[in-house]
Design a protein that fits this description.
The chain is an all-alpha fold and 475 residues long. Helix content is 55%, strand content 3%. A three-stranded antiparallel β-sheet has the order 1-2-3, covered by helices on one side. It is globular, with a radius of gyration of 26 Å.
């Protein structure tokens, strides 16, 4: 009787899962790596290996470039670009033995590796992975090296600006944008998030560079075009679609494993249970009880993961069409709460074990991307404003005056779904996003009571910083 009831339930879950997949496929949804066009021909490009080798050649015990604080607004009455300050601004206040002279020495020693990084990034490949379902040969990503390359380029940008070497700063800024494009089609969410983080660093360097005199129209136009080619919402969707395809592949993989092979796979590959548990009571409990029970419920488990993924992807897509972050964040939080409620049900740790393990926190990933996409859009408009100023010797009365000569279309504020805030003032202009509360405070960069200013996201609005004191000549 138990067997009959279990078989009937499994058959019903399988039919429901197949019907839901058919519905999504009819809508044109991507559900597998095959739908994404994998396996693909391997791209023969040595860009990544050259970057890894070049970063490995930079031996510095005195300079950690990620410590240099960029776009520093922690002192609202003394906002200055890092490169003009006599005291080296540091993100870690406990570091006291770093100076501009040490930066100069370390960058001088790293001239050749940095030149190699720029050369390697002339033509970054769009992907590293050729077959995501080959679990026996996982891709050899080098995210630490990519991050270090971005940070060393950033340090060189800041020092080049200090020396008024705009050609070197321009070359490094271009290399940073190319680094954002590296492996932009690769089917992993973590790869997309690393690239988003590099884009965030490049935005800060963009602000620093815009504070330097000497940029010409051609430089600024090319720079703006480079930023316009980066759309982080698209990269987030690629990451989420890829994540869903990977989850589907893992369900298929685990369904076809024997109980003992499945337990062994988890033990050795993912550390859910230590290797010492292989032949003890817990091991046999997994082989003969929990794993067979999961196999009886695996279609329902997969359906849970697929529905959660589809709901989240649909919400994230709305960001690209102007839906504001407040709405999308509320939706994602609701999906997360529903999932957590299901996973708290009795025996859910057995019934939905793969979903609990595989589903990522999409709300956190989306939040990170929305912040950096907001900054990217502010950077694009700020460059266009600089170009307008060069031509007209003043800033425009409204952002509409930028269209179409300086920008084809004004980007919306992802936080509100409305145009970015803008007004002119006696010292220049105020360009801003309304921030995560969605409330337009008129471009107020001051923090709310009780909030400590750590970056531009600390203010009531997210205001593109303006230099507040006359710049001193760099040493």
């Amino acid at each position: 009787m138990i067997g009959i009831l279990t078989s009937a339930r499994k058959s019903s879950a399988r039919q429901t899962l197949q019907a839901y997949k058919a519905q999504l496929q009819a809508q044109g949804e991507i559900l597998s790596f095959a739908d994404l066009g994998y396996p693909r021909v391997v791209e023969s490009n040595d860009c990544l290996s050259r970057i890894v080798a070049a970063v490995g050649q930079i031996k510095s015990a005195r300079l950690t470039p990620g410590l240099i604080k960029l776009m520093d607004v922690t002192e609202p009455t003394n906002v200055q670009p890092a490169w003009v300050r006599s005291d080296l601004p540091l993100a870690d206040k406990t570091t006291t033995n770093l100076s501009w002279e040490i930066v100069r020495q370390e960058l001088t020693a790293a001239v050749a590796p940095l030149a190699e990084i720029r050369a390697a990034l002339q033509h970054p490949p769009t992907r590293l992975v050729s077959d995501p379902t080959n679990f026996s040969a996982p891709p050899q990503y080098q995210f630490v090296s990519q991050r270090n390359a971005a940070q060393w380029l950033s340090a060189e940008i800041i020092y080049a600006l200090r020396q008024q070497n705009l050609e070197l700063a321009k070359a490094d800024l271009q290399a940073q944008l190319q680094l954002v494009h590296l492996h932009e089609e690769d089917p992993t969410l973590i790869n997309q998030m690393i690239r988003v983080a590099i884009a965030g660093l490049a935005v800060a360097d963009t602000w620093e560079a815009l504070q330097s005199p000497g940029w010409g129209e051609a430089d600024l136009a090319a720079w703006q075009a480079g930023w316009e080619q980066i759309i982080l919402f698209r990269n987030l969707e690629i990451g989420l679609l890829s994540e869903r395809s990977w989850v589907a592949a893992m369900f298929s993989y685990f369904k076809n494993l024997s109980a003992s092979a499945q337990v062994q796979h988890i033990n050795s590959g993912y550390g859910a249970f230590g290797a010492s548990l292989r032949k003890n009571l817990e091991y046999y409990w997994q082989v003969f009880v929990t794993t067979p029970l999961w196999k009886m419920n695996c279609e329902a488990d997969e359906l849970l993961a697929l529905r959660h993924s589809q709901n989240s992807i649909e919400s994230v897509r709305r960001l690209s069409h102007g839906t504001n972050w407040i709405v999308v964040k509320h939706e994602l939080a609701g999906y997360k709460a529903t999932l957590e409620k299901t996973l708290d049900e009795p025996y859910a740790s057995v019934r939905y074990s793969l979903s609990a393990w595989l589903i990522v926190n999409m709300e956190k990933a989306a939040w990170t991307v929305v912040r950096n996409e907001t900054m990217r859009r502010l950077a694009v408009v700020a460059i266009a404003l600089k170009r307008y100023e060069l031509q007209h010797q003043q800033f425009p009365p409204s952002l509409d005056a930028l269209v179409p000569d300086f920008i084809a279309q004004l980007p919306l504020d992802p936080m509100s779904g409305q145009p970015l805030g803008y007004r002119t003032n006696q010292t220049g202009y105020v360009l801003y996003s309304v921030g995560e509360d969605g409330v337009d405070d008129g471009g107020d960069s001051q923090p709310s009571p009780g909030v400590i200013a750590t970056d531009i996201w600390s203010g009531r609005d997210v205001v593109w910083p303006s230099v507040t004191l006359k710049r001193k000549s760099a040493e």
